[in-house]
């Protein structure tokens, strides 16, 4: 399998890992969009949200719990943060192994893409 995140899991590619357990790991995004930007991924390869089954409920729930833990540990849980799951190319997914973005440390605009619009929302 030629999956970037699977290669990170296998330690074939280095990453700045900030959390790890038997079901998931989290590492800093190499192109951060906020002062804190991490990706939380399951150890099991799941191509996209479209491939999730009812058996994956625990996995996805665990990713969200890890995100909340990271927000608390890094001091921005009380102020707030953004989590984001992209699905397929039109949804902005560029690595096809599900991953939860966790962004914090600054106020986030709404909608998430507002800064790219030519006219204010």
TrEMBL record:
A motif (Histidine triad motif) lies at residues 97-101. Residues 4-113 form the HIT domain. InterPro entries: Histidine_triad_CS, Histidine_triad_HIT, HIT-like, HIT-like_sf. Pfam families: DcpS_C. Transmembrane segments: none annotated. PROSITE patterns: HIT_1, HIT_2. This is Histidine triad nucleotide-binding protein.
């Amino acid at each position: 399998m030629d999956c970037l995140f699977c290669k990170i899991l296998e330690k074939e590619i280095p990453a700045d890992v900030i959390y790890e357990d038997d079901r998931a790991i989290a590492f800093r995004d190499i192109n951060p969009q906020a002062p804190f930007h991490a990706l939380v991924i399951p150890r099991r390869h799941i191509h996209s949200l479209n491939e999730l089954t009812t058996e994956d409920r625990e996995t996805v729930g665990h990713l969200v719990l890890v995100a909340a833990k990271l927000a608390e540990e890094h001091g921005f849980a009380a102020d707030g943060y953004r989590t984001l799951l992209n699905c397929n190319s039109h949804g902005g997914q560029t690595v096809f192994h599900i991953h939860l973005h966790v962004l914090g440390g600054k106020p986030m605009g709404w909608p998430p893409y507002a800064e790219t619009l030519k006219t204010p929302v």
